[in-house]
Design goal:
1 helix, elongated, 11 strands, alpha+beta
């Protein structure tokens, strides 16, 4: 019985941790997450990662596209919108650049959408940088978003 209690406690603890992670990071997408619509690839001079639809509360992102260049420059573009706001919403995203084992090599700064109002889609593109020495090791990217 003691072994069964310990096993059930471990399972309950793991479920609680998993639920906490989902609540704290509701719009996390990774190029390696199961069931995710995230795709990645390598072009002639950059690596790319795309996300389909992500949501945080009343805010939404679609068509997220990140390009990482070997010189440490990045370009992110997406379409965002909100279904309800009284003061204007802003979509905030940052990216964790990970190696094939899932270890974080670099975390970017936060990139913001234009102020969003209901019934209007906002296409935007932002430029940024990351540490170029990690470029060759990047295999996965996790997008963390808030609104």
């Amino acid at each position: 019985m003691n072994v069964l209690r310990r096993a059930s406690r471990v399972l309950v603890s793991a479920a609680a941790i998993g639920a906490t992670v989902l609540v704290l990071n509701p719009a996390t997408a990774s190029a390696d997450s199961h069931g995710s619509a995230v795709r990645s690839g390598v072009a002639a001079d950059y690596k790319w990662f795309t996300w389909n639809d992500l949501s945080v509360g009343d805010c939404h992102q679609t068509g997220g596209h990140l390009q990482l260049y070997s010189d440490g420059k990045l370009t992110f573009s997406a379409t965002t919108w909100t279904t309800f706001t009284l003061s204007g919403d802003i979509w905030h995203s940052r990216f964790k650049l990970n190696n094939g084992a899932g270890q974080t090599l670099y975390t970017t700064g936060t990139y913001n959408s234009p102020t969003m109002w209901p019934s209007k889609h906002h296409d935007y593109t932002v430029q940024g940088t990351f540490e170029p020495s990690v470029y060759n090791a990047i295999a996965r990217v996790v997008q963390h978003s808030e609104c």
